[in-house]
Specification:
By secondary structure, chain A is α+β, with helices and mostly antiparallel strands. Chain A has two domains: about 190 residues, no CATH class; about 160 residues, no CATH class. Chain A has 14 helices and 13 strands. By secondary structure, chain B is α/β, with parallel strands linked by helices. Classes of the chains: A alpha+beta, B alpha/beta. Chains A and B meet through helix 1, helix 10 and helix 14 of A and helix 2 and helix 3 of B.
Chain lengths: ~400, ~220
C-alpha cells in the first residue's frame, strides 16, 4: 500500500514542510488542467450539439448538378441550363437505382418577400405535395393540398409574425409579385444540410414552376434511405448511372459524410485549442521541475544519510517521483474540480447550450486533463529524481 | 575473537581532481578481528575518514582488496554495497545525521523497514530507544526537538536496529559535551563487550582510550 511506504511518507512530509512552495508549483498544474479540460469540454459540447442538429438528416443522399444550381438569386428560368439542373430523365435514373427508397426532387431559389411593411429575402423550395409529407412535418396548420398555399419555417414565422392564414407577397416589382397564403408552419428541423426549412417557404411544385419556370428541371434530388447500411451502395449506384461521361453531371453526397467532415473539423479545432491550452501545462512542468531541483538541492545531506544507512538508488528515485506525483495529483484534482465550473461557464458562453455538459463524453475531458497533468508532473520529476539517486553518498553527507 | 571481519590488502584510494591526483590512502593493509574495538587516529587530512568510508562500503578502493565479513567490496555492485551497509554495518556520525522529516522512533525504525519490508511489531525499536536512554516522551519528537546527546543516542539505536556485526563511528563525541561524551563512549564500550566490532575515528586521545587498540594514520599510511 502506497500510504504505508516510508518513501511516500517522506515525500508527503517534505511537501508539507514546503507548503507554500508546493502550492505555488501546483497552481501551474491547476491552471493547465482547467485550461485543457475546459477547452476539451467546450469542444465536445460544440461537436455534440452540432452532431445532434445534423444527424436527424443522416440518412439522406443529396444529388446536385455538377455545374451548380439551386439557391440562385434572380430569375430561375434563365439559369436553368442542362449543366446546372437535374433533368426529369436523371430523376428517373436515380429512382431506378434507389429502389423503394423515397426520391424527392426539389426546386429552390431565393426571392424577395413582403409581409405588411417588412421585406426580406428567403429561400423558397418547390416540392411535389406528396413528397412534402415524406420529408417535412407540420407543427401548426396542415400540408398543402392542390397548388396554392405555402408552408413556412418556424423561424420565418417568428421573424415576420406569421401564422396560418397570413399572406406573403413573393417577388419584386420588376418580375411581378404573387401573394400566397400560409397553410401551415413546419416543425423546427435545425441545421439540416439537404433542406434548411426553418427560415424558408415551401410551396407546391406547380406554384413554383408557374412563378419561376424550370418545369421538369430540378435543383436537387434528395434520396431518403431507409436502411443506413445501403447508403454507400446507393450513392455509388447513382454516381455510376449518372456520371458516365468524361465530366461528372451530378454531385452525389450523403449528409453523413458531411456530418463526419464537420465533426472531424470540430475535433481538430478542439485538439488545436486544447494544445494551446496545454502550453500552460508545459509552463507548469518547468515550475515543477524547478521545485523538484530545489528539493533535491536542499535535501542533498538527507539523501547522503539515506544512502549511507542502506537506501538503494532506486528507492531514492522513488521518493522524488512520489513527490512530483503528489504535486501533480493534488494540482490535477483541484484543477479537475475547478474545470467543472470553468467548463460550464465556457460552454454557456460559447455554445449557449449546456444540455450535453454532464454527458460522459463531455466530462471525460476532466480525467483526461488530470491524467495529462499528473504525467507531466511525474515526467518533470524524473531528472531531479535520477540526479538525487546518483549523488555520491560521501559528498552528499559532507554537504551542509 | 573469531577471525577477521575487516581485511584490507594494499588498499589505495586516489581522488582525481582538476589540480591533480590526491592519494588519500596509500597501500594500506589492515586486519580487524571480530569483537575488536579499534580507534583510528591521525591529524586532519591524514585519511582516517577515507579509511572509515572504505570500510563502511560508502566508497570502493581505487586499488587493492577490501573484505567486509569475508566479501570483497570491489566485486560488489551498488545495490549489494547498499544492502551490506544496511544489514552488516551500523554507522554513527559526528553530526548525528538523523533524518529531519522523521521522528526519533521512525529514524530508528527506518533501517528495519528497509531490511524487513514491514514495520516493527516486535517492540525492538522501542526497547532499543529505551536502552540508549530515550524514553517514550521523547520517541515521537523530531530531531530538531532533541538535544545533541539525545540525537546521538537515537543515532546509536538506529545503527543497532538491524543487529549489525560492525559499528563504525566517525568522531561520535565530536559535537557533545564531556559528560554526554563519556556516557556515549561507555555505551559503545558496553556494546563491544557484548561482541560487537567497533571501529572509531577520533582525534581525542581520551576517547581513543576506550578502544582496545589504536591505529595512527598519516598521509594515507598506517604508521
Amino acid at each position: 500500500m502506497i500510504f504505508d511506504d516510508i518513501f511516500f511518507v517522506l515525500s508527503v512530509r517534505n511537501v508539507r514542510l514546503h507548503f507554500l512552495r508546493s502550492v505555488l508549483a501546483a497552481v501551474g498544474i491547476i491552471i493547465g488542467v482547467v485550461a485543457i479540460a475546459s477547452m476539451g469540454i467546450m469542444g465536445t459540447n460544440l461537436t455534440v450539439a452540432v452532431t445532434e442538429e445534423l444527424s436527424s438528416s443522416g440518412n439522406v443522399i443529396m444529388v446536385t448538378p455538377a455545374g451548380g444550381g439551386g439557391g440562385d438569386f434572380g430569375d430561375h428560368s434563365q439559369s436553368a441550363t442542362s449543366d446546372n439542373v437535374i433533368t426529369d430523365r436523371q430523376v428517373k435514373d436515380i429512382e431506378k437505382v434507389s429502389g423503394t427508397n423515397a426520391v424527392i426532387p426539389l426546386h429552390s431559389t431565393a426571392d424577395q418577400i413582403e409581409v405588411g411593411s417588412k421585406q426580406g429575402w428567403v429561400t423558397i423550395y418547390g416540392l411535389d405535395t406528396d413528397d412534402m409529407r415524406v420529408q417535412l412535418n407540420v407543427e401548426e396548420g396542415k400540408f398543402i393540398s392542390g397548388t396554392s398555399g405555402a408552408l413556412i419555417g418556424p423561424l420565418l414565422a417568428e421573424d415576420y409574425e406569421l401564422k396560418t392564414g397570413s399572406r406573403i407577397k413573393i417577388g419584386d416589382d420588376e418580375d411581378g409579385r404573387k401573394t400566397i397564403r400560409v397553410v401551415g408552419v413546419l416543425e423546427e428541423r435545425g441545421m439540416s444540410m439537404e433542406m434548411y426549412t426553418d427560415s424558408a417557404i415551401v410551396v407546391s411544385e406547380n406554384w413554383y414552376t408557374d412563378q419561376y419556370g424550370g418545369e421538369n428541371e430540378y435543383d436537387q434530388v434528395n434520396v431518403i434511405v431507409e436502411n443506413l447500411d445501403k447508403i454507400e451502395e446507393i450513392k455509388e449506384g447513382i454516381d455510376r448511372k449518372l456520371n458516365k461521361g468524361r465530366d461528372d453531371e451530378v454531385n452525389v453526397i450523403d449528409s453523413g459524410s458531411i456530418l463526419e467532415m464537420i465533426t472531424n473539423t470540430l475535433s481538430t479545432i478542439t485538439v488545436f485549442v486544447s494544445g494551446i491550452a496545454g502550453i500552460s501545462l508545459l509552463v507548469a512542468a518547468v515550475s515543477i521541475f524547478n521545485v523538484m531541483m530545489m528539493s533535491v538541492t536542499e535535501r542533498i545531506k538527507e539523501i547522503g544519510i539515506l544512502r549511507s544507512i542502506g537506501t538503494r538508488k532506486a528507492w531514492v528515485r522513488r521518493m522524488f517521483i512520489y513527490e512530483a506525483f503528489i504535486l501533480g495529483f493534488v494540482g490535477s484534482a483541484l484543477g479537475g474540480l475547478l474545470s467543472l465550473a470553468g467548463g460550464y461557464v465556457l460552454v454557456l458562453m460559447m455554445v449557449q447550450d449546456t444540455q450535453y455538459f454532464f454527458s460522459f463524453q463531455s466530462l471525460i475531458n476532466i480525467p483526461y486533463a488530470m491524467g495529462i497533468g499528473i504525467i507531466i508532473c511525474v515526467v518533470s520529476g524524473v531528472y531531479p529524481a535520477w540526479k538525487a539517486s546518483n549523488l555520491d553518498p560521501i559528498e552528499a553527507l559532507a554537504n551542509e | 575473537m573469531s577471525g577477521p571481519v575487516i581485511e584490507l590488502v594494499d588498499v589505495s584510494k586516489v581522488y582525481s581532481l582538476p589540480s591533480g591526483d590526491v592519494v588519500a590512502l596509500d597501500n594500506v593493509s589492515l586486519v580487524i578481528e571480530e569483537g575488536d574495538f579499534v580507534a583510528i587516529m591521525g591529524p586532519s587530512g591524514s585519511g582516517k575518514s577515507t579509511l572509515l568510508n572504505q570500510i563502511g562500503s560508502l566508497d570502493v578502493p581505487t586499488s587493492g582488496d577490501l573484505y567486509v565479513t569475508g566479501r570483497n567490496i570491489r566485486e560488489m555492485d551498488d545495490d549489494e554495497l547498499t544492502d551490506l551497509r544496511r544489514d552488516e554495518i551500523g554507522y554513527i556520525f559526528q553530526k548525528f545525521n538523523l533524518i529531519p522529516l522523521l521522528t526519533a522512533y521512525e529514524n530508528v525504525e527506518y533501517p528495519y523497514l528497509l531490511k524487513h519490508k514491514k514495520t516493527d511489531r516486535t517492540g525492538r525499536v522501542t526497547s532499543l530507544l529505551k536502552e540508549v536512554g530515550i524514553d517514550e516522551s521523547r520517541m515521537y519528537h523530531t530531531p530538531n526537538e532533541l538535544s545533541g546527546g539525545q540525537q546521538q543516542r537515537v543515532a546509536i539505536a538506529r545503527a543497532l536496529v538491524n543487529e549489525p556485526g560492525i559499528l563504525l563511528c566517525d568522531e561520535p563525541t565530536g559535537n557533545l559535551d564531556t559528560k554526554t561524551s563519556r556516557q556515549i563512549m561507555e555505551m559503545l564500550a558496553h556494546l563491544n563487550s557484548g561482541g560487537m566490532t567497533v571501529i572509531m575515528v577520533t582525534h581525542d586521545p581520551n576517547i581513543a582510550d576506550y578502544a582496545r587498540r589504536t591505529i595512527t594514520i598519516s598521509d594515507g599510511r598506517i604508521v
